[in-house]
Amino acid sequence: MKKGLLLLAALLLISGSVIALPSYSGLRGLNRTVDAKPIGAGEFSIALFSFLGVSDDTRTAQLSGGAQDVTDTEYNGTWYITAGVGLSEKIEIAGRVSYVWNCLSRDEVEGRQDLVGGQNENDDGFSEANFFLKYSFNPESDFVIGIMPWVGFAMYEGGDSPYVTNYNQFDGVWNPEQPMFEMRRSMIGTNFSAGADLLASMNLHPVVLHANVGYHYFKQNFQFTDHRFGTTDTVAVDMDVVDPVLHVAMGVEYPMDGLTLFAEAEWRHFLDRDFEDGNGERYDDMIIFQPGLRFPIAGRFSCDVVGAFGLDTFDPEWSDLGHRFYQAGGTPTDETRADFAPFPEGYYPSWGVGVNLMYSGSIAAAPGSAIMSGTVTDALTGEALEATVAFPGDAIEPAGSDAETGFYSAELPEGNVSVAVNSPGYIGVSETVAVEGGVDFNNNYALQPEPGIVVGSVTDIETGLAISGATVSATDDPAASDRTGTDGLYEFNVNEGTLIVSATATGYLGAEENLEVLSGDIVTIDFQLQSVIFDPIYFVVNEYAIQSEYTSILDAISENIIANNLNMQISGYADDDYTEEYNQTLSENRAEAVFDYLVNLGVSASSLSTIGYGENMPAAPNTTETNKALNRRVEFIVR
Asked: Model-level pTM?
């Protein structure tokens, strides 16, 4: 015990202060949450994490005066020594050695402190070694995804046993010289553990979000003698307990000048412990909330200070390895004892505090550097923009451009550096720049505003049915248009500003709307169009002269074309008398006659077109004179 505490004290003195880079795993991250983004090729970190958890637990002690409720305090100290290195821009590895100290401090109740061993029972030692690997699929993106497999092995160097042992008489925690399996964390460590986590991180500039979801596996071995208090009955227990665990951790960090605020939450769900004890309480889930702050001390040294609050329910009977059943005279099986085995790594404490000391550096020789500076502006107006100039994949602090001038400046290492420029409401720019040590250079960025989006539908005003093939467009932007599909829907991008959007469809009167669109906005406009149907006119056999009875129809058609700015196709037809060639010419002449009539009424010739179909496409079979009269016609189609 003393050797272990001296070693920890020496490590604290050596570490001094550090950088806020690694997590408890040694990989880049917060504390309990791993960043999906690797540390960077050739970069490394070393750290000492220290955390002290405190919990008050009520127990029933059998004292000389009889049973009495006492409140004991558990202290759980955890120290992680970590080292991590970036093998490439996508791969990072890390190792961790854990040292733990578990202590039960008994409530000062009369008749309890004179027991052999005193007030405190504790154990400590190096518990386990862990190894972690992280692979990132897209480290240069603001939304990074990665995977983290890991494995852990027991060490148990130092200390008296793998678990805290009671050297007093029975006083609420089993019998003398028996493991205290009613503590939140009675075990120093696990025999074997492994798992894999999916990692995701999103940089929202400046807030950064992290999420880890994984499957963990733990194997513990228990060797002890269970005593039935008040009798000479004993039973030897030697068993392995396996626990599959669903693990979720989430974190958020907010960088400020010289300081980063962060908060994390971690949830562990034990998949094989999903039952309750008949009172509605469950003990298969545990949650801890941990806020903190990190700050640089000097150079590449930094420090974290954290607090923590456990949100789970703890009942000592759920960690006693079935001792209560044996004490009651039963003979619990290994399966029953496994159900009530101490949880691997223990319950979270009621509350805790931690101080972390870290250092980061580079394996390669320090390269030269250069200053990159310039402006960030609006590509359309030339106005200055407040933007973030970041450097994905490199441990370089992002630079911010001035809102008034658009100016930014950043010191970059020699070599190829990725640059990402982003501003709210604008399309970001990403590129790689070649940096020559000692040669400052200028890079200006003009960002295009994010387009506005116009969406909606086009339907028939009378039937409500979708109109397919309608054209919807911005009148002052030829590139901003779309044609509706069978569902009548359309969508297109437009530049910011005031514009007129029109909808046209064959056989319908057009419609238009004025609207204001801001960059990045989605504006919905639904058009309901009025159908336009004109009756055909008919002709005498073998003639194309317009009969007087149809002039009123043509007058009305001309007024509609002019008033609504319509485009129209005039289609001529004939019956099957005479030859096919003759009927084709006759149908064209009939269409031309109507064309001339409408132009004479003031209709623009450019809004009209003609076509003849001859004896093809009859309105009725040419079997009777009545049907043939229906085929000697001109029809009107609004385009």
From this structure: 0.58
